[in-house]
Amino acid sequence: MPHDLPTVRRLEAVGFRAWPAASVAYDGSWQIRLTGGHPSKRLNCVVPLDPSDHRDLALRLQKAAKRFDSYGRKLIVRETPLIPPQLLSFMEAEGWAPFETADVMTVDLTELALPDTLDYLPSHDIGRFIDASLVLDKDEASLKPALAEILSSIKPQTGFFIKEVPKDGAVAVALCVQDNDLAGIMSFAVAADRRRGGLGTEILSAALRWARLSGARGAWLQVVSTNDPAIALYRKFGFRKVYEYRYWRQGVMA
Questions:
Q1: Where in the chain are the domains?
Q2: Smallest Cα–Cα separation from 33: which of 5, 1, 71?
Q3: N-acetyltransferase domain spans which residues (predicted)?
Q4: Which CATH architecture group holds 107-244?
Q5: Which of 96, 93, 103 is nearest to 239 (CA)?
Q6: How much is the pLDDT for 194?
Q7: Plot region of 196 (φ>0 → left; ψ -120 to 50 → alpha; else → beta)
Q8: Secondary structure of residue 226 in the 3-state scheme
Q9: What is the gyration radius of the CA atoms in the chain, in angstroms?
Q10: Is the pTM higher than 0.85?
Q11: CA atoms within 13 A on the CB side of 160
Q12: Is the model's pLDDT at 115 over the cut of 80?
């Protein structure tokens, strides 16, 4: 099914602003994103943004690989509906393979039934949010400085939502980034032993309600396509898949 490319371009643009890489360079319409302190694939990948930009594929991939090598990283290409088909064919012929797929989902906030009041007010305490996220995602504490840099670099309005309980501390978090009339849901996590108890619904409702009160008319998110429980929750809120993207690298079995 053909994609609405203007919509894809807009969602890609707000996605870049919601999770900014430390270094962004361009080779034609290929965006080269690198972040030395954080291994996130979204922050360390090449993203082609024009289906017609397919000149000198081998040379440009070689140049990008050298740039990634200078950061101590292997080259990753992110495939969206904006990628040139010729690049996909070239990568396949050269032994590249996709290794992760994610869905981009959206919902119309103007038609969404949400609570009349905010159960959770957004925090502006980046350090507290990072500490909670690291615990819930079971990430290394060494990532804290990089996360602080990323979150501090987000230019649109942000709301950090944290659910804490006595003794146990943080049990759920969500980051909402409002970019004009679109709000992105990022870093959404619920403690493993607290899932299916309504916490995810509560904190997601609060984030979306805050976004709508702040002027957002639509919301978007990105989720790994194999994360069935999360996708089921998002569908309950009315989120629907708009397109998917895949990460590619060389020498990886599909």
A1: 5-103+245-250, 107-244
A2: 71
A3: 104-254
A4: 3-Layer(aba) Sandwich (3.40)
A5: 103
A6: 79
A7: left
A8: coil
A9: 19
A10: yes
A11: 17
A12: no
- The count of residues in the chain is 254
CA nearest 153: which of 126, 189, 122, 184? 126
CA–CA gap between residue 218 and residue 211 (Å, rounded): 9
Q: Report, in this order, helix, strand and coil percent for the chain, each rounded to 5.
A: 35, 30, 30
Query: What letters, b where the CB count within 10 A reaches 16 and e where it falls short, cover 190-200?
Result: bbeebbeeebb
Sorting pLDDT into bands at 50, 70 and 90, what band is 254? very low
SS (H, E, C) 123-175: ECCHHHHHHHHHHHHCCCHHHHHHHHHHHHHCCCEEEEEEEEECCCEEEEEEE
- Which single residue is written with the structure tokens 């069935």? 228
CA 51 remoteness from chain centre: 22
Burial (Cβ within 10 Å: 0-12, 13-18, ≥19) of residue 173? buried
Find tokens 């690989």 and name the residue.
65
Answer yes or no: are the C-beta atoms of 133 and 147 closer than 8 Å: yes
pLDDT tens per residue across span 182-219: 999 999 999 888 788 788 898 999 999 999 999 999 99
Opening angle at CA 192, ends 247 and 115, nearest 5 = 90
